[in-house]
Write a sequence for this structure.
């Protein structure tokens, strides 16, 4: 089987477009920043975030963290401002962040994922959403990781691929698991086997979900390549029928 | 292995998983994720590497003990006390 995920086009966006029901926005947040931009970014962070930014052992990690957190705030504020809502976060028991104080009618949900020089944020109304991106790098032990953490069916999916495609298949299953378990609000901390991911011609597919996490038919996975060096999967409610891919040019 | 030897072993594993990182400034009492670029897959790589090198089996419910160097060494010390360090 040849996996051919749908091609995506990024639109440059200086501001958040209206978020219509049935639509999800996927933002790519740029990680590069000049010295003066970085100074501006730092000012937007909370005191706690500023302290965290300087705990990293490498300056690039500090730069990525500051830039990512700043742009996350800038973009989310653009969704909230027309609603008259301030930006404030709360976290569930598994550490998933939510916007605080949102009225049910104006519920805006988001999720983020970052690796290396890629940061993605997914936003939609009313429904939970999850996203995961992985940097494509050689993982010598990926079959062993699959054996330990994937279901039998998922391991079979990988092994049924030609050898040169197996690592990509592994990443589709991994990002599919992370995306759906983040959408469910629990992340992978309670076990990777709570969701089982298959692979179809257009990428990852949710085959099974533990019953307490909801009905598998309510969810849809969409694999995409944000860049040739990265694989990503978005998990949305099945009523989300349109995606907009936005490259952030704000801030 | 002594706690100091376990710490060296963890540094060696981290060096393989994240070769770009400067581990000499790693603070033991701060979470790995707050200092290094480690994602969840890298984290599970640590678990796999401990199993491969020393046959240490870490159940999923114990993964929270591996958040920082200090908590990892504390968790592994009784489990690795009878393991000889690499010569």
């Amino acid at each position: 089987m040849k996996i051919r995920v749908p091609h995506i086009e990024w639109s440059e966006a200086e501001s958040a477009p209206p978020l219509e029901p049935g639509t999800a926005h996927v933002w790519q947040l740029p990680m590069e920043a000049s010295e003066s931009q970085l100074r501006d970014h730092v000012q937007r962070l909370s005191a706690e975030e500023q302290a965290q930014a300087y705990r990293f052992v490498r300056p690039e990690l500090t730069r990525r963290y500051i830039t990512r957190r700043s742009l996350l705030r800038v973009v989310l504020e653009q969704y909230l401002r027309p609603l008259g809502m301030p930006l404030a976060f709360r976290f569930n028991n598994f550490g998933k962040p939510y916007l605080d104080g949102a009225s049910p009618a104006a519920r805006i949900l988001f999720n983020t994922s970052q690796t290396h020089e890629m940061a993605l944020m997914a936003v939609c109304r009313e429904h939970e959403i999850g996203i995961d991106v992985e940097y494509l790098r050689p993982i010598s032990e990926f079959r062993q990781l699959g054996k330990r953490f994937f279901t039998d069916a998922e391991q079979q999916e990988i092994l049924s691929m030609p050898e040169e495609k197996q690592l990509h298949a592994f990443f589709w299953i991994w990002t599919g698991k992370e995306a759906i378990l983040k959408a469910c609000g629990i992340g992978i901390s309670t076990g990777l086997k709570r969701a089982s991911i298959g692979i179809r011609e257009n990428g990852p597919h949710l085959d099974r979900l533990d019953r307490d996490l909801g009905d598998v038919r309510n969810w849809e996975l969409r694999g995409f390549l944000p860049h040739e060096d990265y694989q990503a999967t978005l998990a949305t409610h099945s009523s989300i029928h349109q995606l907009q891919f936005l490259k952030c040019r704000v801030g | 292995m002594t706690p100091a030897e376990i710490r060296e072993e963890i540094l060696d594993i981290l060096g393989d998983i994240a070769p770009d990182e400067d581990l000499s400034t790693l603070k033991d009492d701060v979470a790995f994720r707050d200092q290094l670029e480690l994602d969840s897959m890298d984290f599970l790589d640590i678990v796999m590497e401990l199993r491969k090198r020393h046959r240490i089996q870490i159940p999923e419910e114990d993964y929270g003990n591996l958040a920082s160097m200090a908590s990892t060494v504390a968790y592994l010390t009784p489990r690795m006390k009878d393991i000889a360090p690499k010569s």
About this structure: Chain A has a mean pLDDT of 92. Residues 132 and 178 of chain A are 6 Å apart (CA to CA).
